[in-house]
Amino acid sequence: MRNPNKPKFNEGDELSPWRESLNTIIFGAETWPAKLFDVVLIICILISVLSVMLGSVESLNVKYSVVFLYIEWFFTALFTVEYFLRLISVRRPLMYCRSFFGIVDFLSIIPTYLSFLIPGVKYMLVIRVMRLLRIFRILKLSEYLSESHVLLEALNKSRHKILVFLYTVCTLVVLFGSLMYVVEGSASGFTSIPKGVYWAIVTLTTVGYGDIAPQTPWGQLIAAMIMIMGYGIIAVPTGIYSAELIKVNKPDINNDACPDCGSTGHDFDASFCKFCGHELDEE
Amino acid sequence: MRNPNKPKFNEGDELSPWRESLNTIIFGAETWPAKLFDVVLIICILISVLSVMLGSVESLNVKYSVVFLYIEWFFTALFTVEYFLRLISVRRPLMYCRSFFGIVDFLSIIPTYLSFLIPGVKYMLVIRVMRLLRIFRILKLSEYLSESHVLLEALNKSRHKILVFLYTVCTLVVLFGSLMYVVEGSASGFTSIPKGVYWAIVTLTTVGYGDIAPQTPWGQLIAAMIMIMGYGIIAVPTGIYSAELIKVNKPDINNDACPDCGSTGHDFDASFCKFCGHELDEE
Amino acid sequence: MRNPNKPKFNEGDELSPWRESLNTIIFGAETWPAKLFDVVLIICILISVLSVMLGSVESLNVKYSVVFLYIEWFFTALFTVEYFLRLISVRRPLMYCRSFFGIVDFLSIIPTYLSFLIPGVKYMLVIRVMRLLRIFRILKLSEYLSESHVLLEALNKSRHKILVFLYTVCTLVVLFGSLMYVVEGSASGFTSIPKGVYWAIVTLTTVGYGDIAPQTPWGQLIAAMIMIMGYGIIAVPTGIYSAELIKVNKPDINNDACPDCGSTGHDFDASFCKFCGHELDEE
Amino acid sequence: MRNPNKPKFNEGDELSPWRESLNTIIFGAETWPAKLFDVVLIICILISVLSVMLGSVESLNVKYSVVFLYIEWFFTALFTVEYFLRLISVRRPLMYCRSFFGIVDFLSIIPTYLSFLIPGVKYMLVIRVMRLLRIFRILKLSEYLSESHVLLEALNKSRHKILVFLYTVCTLVVLFGSLMYVVEGSASGFTSIPKGVYWAIVTLTTVGYGDIAPQTPWGQLIAAMIMIMGYGIIAVPTGIYSAELIKVNKPDINNDACPDCGSTGHDFDASFCKFCGHELDEE
Questions:
Q1: pLDDT per residue as tens, chain C (283 positions)
Q2: What is chain C's alpha carbon radius of gyration, rounded to the nearest angstrom?
Q3: Within chain A, which residues score under 70 in pLDDT?
Q4: Which of B87, B101, D27, D196 is buried deepest, with most CB atoms within 10 A?
Q5: Distance CA D83, CA D101 (A)
């Protein structure tokens, strides 16, 4: 009964037959019941998220408030059942609970129950949108996973540079925000330093709402400097990430192993193993 | 009579002489009548699109409504005739109808006729602007085609990464939009979750209209986070596309090995191996 | 008398001694009088441009209108004299007149004279700011020239791709602008298709003034799509230019010539000339 | 007594034992008292900056003005003592005073004392945020330093290109700003050329406040051109910085040649020549 293809689970985790097949349906992605389950799940998630979003629209809520309530409770019940099925069918329930998806699945049902205590919390049901991440399972899983792996690896490798960059941005924003508070004053909407810092972020990131805007010539001069700075600084994260992605992305790594020492990572133009000097096989 | 240089059409598609020469004029780009036809066509398209655009300006439409009507019908008649000439002169009319250009050509004439039934639809005539794509035929065709091919190939190769990126953006936007709806409430313009999501998109993409803007300190704090996130996230598509374009763009690697020492990585203009000096094979 | 170091001028262009030394001062950049001339010129340009700019400020113009008039005429007279000195001292006056700098120098003095006929034209004196390009002569000339050469070469090489990109942007903007005109109507500020196209450009480029903003849910949905598109599309010119700059920028070109055939452009790892197969000198 | 591990200080700079240990605590980062000192310092900086920022909020200042005053004086006193301790414990006080951190440390205490003379100056205390740069000492110092070194080196190497770019941006902005002043006039908010230039910067950098926006068709046409230009021009600094970062970033090229065949381009981890299989020299 035990599936020999899943060696990562040790003997004690053996599931009874029906839990095993439930596991295949819920957590698997290859058999057709598993695929059907995923498609139905994704449709349910989409409908429930859409219903929460539309339920917040005043005009719709007045007319169809009962409908939205029914939909909300229907999907919450459904996802609660699903959550318990996952708990039952998984080999290590505790590990699932603490995994990223376990937490998301839990947070996707809890706001409805909490909404008895705290009214606004039910809108947090939109967190269900994160469950859609499972959509990549129905698409060709491995391809997308490796792609997002590349994106994350590049992000991970450039995290130090990004932190240095973020610190620089924060410092600039605090300094310029305070300067603008002193220069412009409350008349132009710079009523406090935090407001000035908020304005500096709005400006440096080139968002530019225009709810607060400098009115005095000196303020506009400083603003112009921040804008050009922000326009140029955007080159920094882009440059960091591009450079890292190009390195990670590199296609010219030869996957053939050395026939002598088994080492890999040889260049395509290598005729001899760079570690042991043995001749590499000609393709 | 049959042109032996067009082997892609099979025997049954043989055209009569005048249809053959019509084909050369309408679909070709090398002979001078073909070039003249293209130039006249492009001028007609530009005038007709401009006329549709200006016809929507209230002040102009009041004065010259008859002129605009005449121009509209004149060009629609002209393009209708052209469409039928294309149908007649092409070897496989059905294939043309279903091709990208066939659909665009059809959509470029149909709104005028439909405007009897649905009033606003006539403005859809601006789709004629897509017919201008033919402009690249008069310019040095092959060069532009290969350039846009490179751009599209890079886009195609990075489509998985871009989908992962788009999913991430959508998720962030839904989560932050809902959060802002709860935090800010209707007073600041966040009247519903869809409105909050719209605001989050406006902010994350650094567009920043300012029609909806956070008023409370907590809302501004979240907004500041979204802005810095959006400012940084723009590095991701740029990095993806740059990295892919650099890979696609790289034409200067010769895969031929030196016949003497087997080394590769020679430039395309190399006649001798750069490592051992042996003559490389002529291609 | 004739300077043998300037072989690009043919015999007939020989200048008299004083014109020769004037040439050295005005067009040269090595001798100290030439450097002094450049510095004085740049200061004059800066003052005159600043004066034109400040002269347009209502409050200042009311008070100091006479001062601004004197300054304007003083610098115009000065630059007119300078222009004639350039004409006299240059070997080929006609070629100078038609050169980029010759045209800029001419346009820098003509608005003052034209302002008798057309009032607003005097503000075009700010074109003098382009004369500041000469600033790079005082700084280490060659370095900056080669840097801007790299930037321009990359721009030139990617011009086909950029044209394809611009055409795509124009098409998108016309299509979406018309769509929004139909969807939103005059109530939200979309009073005509050109206005809609203007709004689409403001949105796609992530500028986002907010003077026109969609009000209906469908309009906001389309707007959201344009924004995300614009946020992603920015990757295209950046990718194009980065890729081209990396190619142009490439530092790994060996400047050593082959001792046998004199060819250059060998890789750093080349031991043999790739054109004639001769051994390259070891460094 | 003299620490032999710090050979950069000459004999005359020998410190007395307690100053030596003070030096280790204040300027060092390896021992646990040094680490504790850094952590406490960073917390103090954060609290003091936060207090200055919140102290500028009207509603809070009215209620807690005395508290903010106490906090301000407490931290100023603390940082003053710290400044003198640094002066005492450092080997070359004058060099410290003129160093980047010495100036920042001084500017971090002086505004409180100056606020007796000039009221607004006390908000300049936020410059203390720059002292947080020391935060990178507690984190793995060397890693972050080398990362920021890479970022700065790339910035330094591309400074000529960036200057050329900035000059181009300034020229464009002055020309377009003046043009808009002439085209739009005061009615749309373009009251002077400096205002027009400010608007051009706001537009070109894609910030787009919307406080000043073109109203006439011609003005909107010019604005559309500036926007598309700004949208494209952002590719230039990004391209420059990416290209430079990729060059600086590239650590994996070994310049050592194979002792047997003279080939280069080996990886750093290579022990044998990839072309001839000969053993490479150990470094």
A1: 344 444 444 444 567 888 888 888 888 777 888 888 888 988 999 999 999 889 888 888 889 989 998 998 999 999 999 999 988 888 888 888 888 888 888 988 888 888 888 877 778 888 888 888 777 666 655 667 677 777 888 888 888 888 888 888 999 999 999 999 888 888 888 988 999 999 999 999 999 888 888 988 899 999 999 999 998 888 888 888 888 888 776 544 455 566 666 665 566 556 666 666 667 665 4
A2: 27
A3: 1-14, 136-143, 145, 249-278, 280-283
A4: D196
A5: 11
**Contact yes or no for A151 and B171 at CB 8 A:** no
| ipTM above threshold 0.95 | no
Q: Which two tokens stand for residue D158?
A: 């591309």
Name the closest residue on chain D to residue C121, using Cα atoms: D182
pLDDT tens, per residue, chain B with 283 residues: 444 444 444 444 567 888 888 888 888 777 888 888 888 988 999 999 999 889 888 888 889 989 998 998 999 999 999 999 988 888 888 888 888 888 888 988 888 888 888 877 778 888 888 888 777 666 655 667 677 777 888 888 888 888 888 888 999 999 999 999 988 888 888 988 999 999 999 999 999 888 888 988 899 999 999 999 998 888 888 888 888 888 776 544 455 566 666 665 565 556 666 666 667 665 4
Q: Name the residue among A166, A182, A159, A234 with its Cα closest to residue A203.
A: A234
Domain B11-140 belongs in CATH node 1.10.10: no
Chains linked to C by 3 or more Cβ pairs within 8 Å? A, B, D
Q: What is the per-residue pLDDT across D157-213, written as a single tens digit (0 to 9) for each?
A: 888 888 888 888 999 999 999 999 888 888 888 988 999 999 999 999 999 888 888
Radius of gyration of chain B (CA): 28
Per-residue model confidence as pLDDT tens digits over D99-154: 888 888 898 888 888 888 887 777 878 888 888 877 766 665 566 667 777 788 88
Q: Residue C17 and residue A36: Cα distance in Å, rounded?
A: 93
Which tokens go with C160?
Answer: 């086909």
Classify each residue of A160-186 as buried b or exposed e, where b means 16 or more C-beta atoms within 10 Å of its C-beta: bbbbbbebebebbbbbbbbbbbbbbee
Question: B272 has which bridge partners?
Answer: B279
Token couple for B173: 């936007």
**What are phi and psi for residue A124, nearest 5 degrees?**
-70, -5
DSSP class per residue in C136-187: HHHTTHHHHHHHHHHHHHHHHHTHHHHHHHHHHHHHHHHHHHHHHHHHH-GG
User: Nearest-CA distance from C205 to chain D in Å?
Assistant: 6
Chain B, residues 242-261, CB within 8 A of chain D, namely 242, 261
DSSP SS3 for D140: coil
Q: Which residues of chain D from 195 to 234 reach within 8 Å of chain C, CB to CB?
A: 197, 203, 206-210, 213, 217, 220, 223-224, 227-228, 230-232, 234
Q: Give the pTM.
A: 0.82
The values of phi and psi at residue A7, to 5°, are -75, -5
Query: What CATH number matches the domain at B157-247, 2.60.40.420, 1.10.287.70, 3.40.50.1240, 3.40.50.300?
Result: 1.10.287.70
Q: Which residues contact B213 (CB under 8 A, 6 or more apart)?
A: A209, A211, B188, B189, B223
Q: How far is A160 from chain B (nearest CA, A)?
A: 14
Sign of CA dihedral A145, A147, A148, A152: positive
What is the rounded distance in angstroms from the CA atom of residue A89 to the CA atom of residue A18? 9
Instruction: Report CB contact under 8 Å: C207, D209.
Output: no
For chain A, the chains sharing at least 3 beta-carbon pairs closer than 8 angstroms are: B, C, D
Domain residue ranges of chain C, discontinuous segments joined by +: 11-140, 157-247
Rounded distance between C-alpha atoms, residue C108 and residue C48, angstroms: 10
